[in-house]
């Protein structure tokens, strides 16, 4: 305590005495600050403020009434009790976990396989590789719209293809059965995520010096062994970043689920993110929605710490 | 699985005698098959959109009986929303670049010391903030400020993805502009502002284009803010238009898919016209900070 007081008292004396060029220097400094201030103000207003506001709202009874009366009474931990005690909370937590883990594993494995394939040189590889990006570039909601029709039980393209397979008598209700909807939603999210994974991993593969493979080949490391002993270790930094970013992005996915199932049937695809949306914008209980949002932030934060540690080099520059 | 790693074929990058890529038709065929699997949904989107009646019956595999009915319906019912999205996205590009470009330059070339670290740290943190948290807080703030259902309100919110992305992307690019070039301008008597406009901006053209294109796509594809910050049909971006369309006319898929195709056109056009910027943006914005 005392230390803080002393250091505060001494700090003003640290100011440099004004020299001759002080006026010019000050002006230059002001111009420099002016370059960066708008961005800082924006980030504070559109990211900093919402986070703080959500933490506060989490302790308030914030409903439609609040918009008329301006009153949001403090309720302590009531919102958290409410959402944690909600019959579907455990389900949303499990769904969030399954959705994230399933999406990440699928996107990563397929993305890596495709990246490795396109790493070989062949005619048209560049063109084909960039066309694979399309699912990632189109609006997510457009992607989910077409998947709804592909996954339709009676007339969807997928079930028609399955129907043509001999001896296979399957006619799954992809989006309307409580046991399959989550699988279908994960599948579509994998499809959406492959291009991003593929592109970043392909970039990582390009960075690995060819000489390593030549040297490895002399020692008999080709094929799978070259992958295990050269490609994978060299790719690891990129892999870590892709996985962590993937987790952080997947935790907050909303479009895919709302577009495909709206969280249904019977909450079988409800995640914390969609549950939070549901609380705030369908039940107009913004306090409970904020509480769920805060829980999501805490989960993301764990991964944020990992991410920031990975990026420390970039930050320190 | 046997040949995971390419056998030695590639000449080192930048080597004068660059060996031409081998043809390897088998790989090209496999590549096309992979692409066909990945792009089948997009084919299906176009196929359904061109069918005369996309009622709840099985869609033919090929659009033999071509019809533009889906598109005429889509344009008459969703045309306004497309214009709304266009205005929002263009506004978002202008606003984001205005804010992000000077900041990126400052972070790359000014001696901001600890400040640069703090801002960069803040940008990385923004990646962790779930959109629903931002929407939740913005809704009540927008309600107080009268920004709900306004073009300006959506432009501001839809820049939330573009601004951090653009700063990171352009900072990496501007960092590679040699300091000596900028310093030469200072020696000639130019201030920061003149050096920025006459030297840095022209040299950063490609980075600006990449940042602008991605900001456009982010804003164009936004669904969350469209869903939460608009409450009437008066101002409705195409993503929300499509979402409500699917909810209400689920029996007739041709106009829905025509709308989906129209909403995907910017991405398709971008990939065809600006391929190299796209690849640079995906890798540049995500990893190389």
UniProtKB/TrEMBL annotation, chain A:
One of its GO terms (biological process) is transmembrane transport. The chain crosses the membrane at residues 30-52, 97-118, 130-150, 174-194, 234-251, 286-308. Residues 93-307 form the ABC transmembrane type-1 domain. It is found in: Cell membrane. It is a multi-pass membrane protein. InterPro entries: MetI-like, MetI-like_sf. This is Carbohydrate ABC transporter membrane protein 1 (CUT1 family).
């Amino acid at each position: 305590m005392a230390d803080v007081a002393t250091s505060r008292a001494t700090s003003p004396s640290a100011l440099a005495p004004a020299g001759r060029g002080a006026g010019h220097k000050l002006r230059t400094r002001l111009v420099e600050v002016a370059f960066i201030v708008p961005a800082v103000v924006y980030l504070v207003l559109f990211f900093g403020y919402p986070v703080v506001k959500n933490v506060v709202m989490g302790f308030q009874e914030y409903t439609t009434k609040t918009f008329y009366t301006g009153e949001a009474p403090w309720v302590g931990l009531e919102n958290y009790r409410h959402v944690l005690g909600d019959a579907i909370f455990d389900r949303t937590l499990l769904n969030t976990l399954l959705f994230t883990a399933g999406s990440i594993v699928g996107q990563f494995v397929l993305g890596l396989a495709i990246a490795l394939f396109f790493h070989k040189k062949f005619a048209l590889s560049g063109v084909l590789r960039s066309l694979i990006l399309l699912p990632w570039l189109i609006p997510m909601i457009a992607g989910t719209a077409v998947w709804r029709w592909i996954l339709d039980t009676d007339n969807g393209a997928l079930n028609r293809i399955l129907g043509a397979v001999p001896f296979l008598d399957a006619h799954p209700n992809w989006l309307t059965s409580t046991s399959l909807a989550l699988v279908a939603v994960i599948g579509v999210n994998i499809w959406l995520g492959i291009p991003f994974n593929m592109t970043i991993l392909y970039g990582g593969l390009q960075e690995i010096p060819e000489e390593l493979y030549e040297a490895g080949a002399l020692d008999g490391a080709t094929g799978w062994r070259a992958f295990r002993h050269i490609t994978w270790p060299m790719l690891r930094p990129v892999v870590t970043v892709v996985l962590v970013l993937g987790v952080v992005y997947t935790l907050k996915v909303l479009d895919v689920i709302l577009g495909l199932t709206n969280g249904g049937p019977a909450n079988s695809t409800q995640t914390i993110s969609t549950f939070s949306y549901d609380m705030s914008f369908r039940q107009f209980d913004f306090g409970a929605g904020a509480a769920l949002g805060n829980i999501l932030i805490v989960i993301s934060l764990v991964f944020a710490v990992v991410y920031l540690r990975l990026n420390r080099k970039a930050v320190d520059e | 699985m046997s040949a995971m790693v390419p056998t030695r074929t590639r000449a080192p990058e930048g080597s004068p005698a660059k060996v031409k890529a081998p043809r390897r038709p088998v790989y090209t065929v496999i590549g096309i098959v992979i692409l066909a699997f990945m792009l089948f949904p997009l084919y299906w989107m176009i196929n359904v959109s061109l069918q005369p009646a996309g009622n709840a019956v099985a869609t033919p595999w090929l659009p033999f009986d071509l019809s533009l009915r889906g598109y005429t319906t889509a344009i008459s019912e969703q045309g306004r929303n497309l214009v709304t999205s266009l205005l929002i996205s263009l506004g978002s590009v202008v606003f984001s670049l205005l804010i992000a470009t000077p900041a990126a330059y400052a972070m790359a070339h000014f001696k901001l010391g600890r400040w640069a670290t703090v801002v960069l740290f803040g940008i990385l943190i923004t990646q962790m903030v779930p959109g629903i948290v931002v929407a939740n807080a913005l809704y009540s703030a927008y309600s107080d400020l009268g920004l709900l259902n306004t073009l300006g309100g959506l432009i501001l919110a839809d820049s939330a993805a573009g601004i951090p992305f653009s700063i990171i992307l352009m900072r990496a690019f501007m960092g590679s502009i040699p300091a000596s070039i900028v310093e030469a301008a200072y020696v000639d008597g130019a201030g920061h502002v003149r050096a920025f406009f006459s030297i840095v901006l022209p040299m950063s053209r490609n980075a600006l284009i990449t940042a602008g294109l991605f900001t456009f796509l982010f804003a164009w594809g936004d669904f969350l803010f469209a869903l939460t910050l608009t409450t009437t049909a008066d101002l409705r971006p195409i993503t929300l238009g499509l979402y409500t369309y699917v909810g209400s006319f689920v029996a007739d898929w041709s106009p829905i898919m025509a709308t989906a195709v129209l909403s995907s056109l910017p991405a398709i056009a971008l990939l065809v016209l600006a391929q190299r910027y796209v690849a640079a943006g995906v890798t540049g914005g995500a990893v190389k900070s």
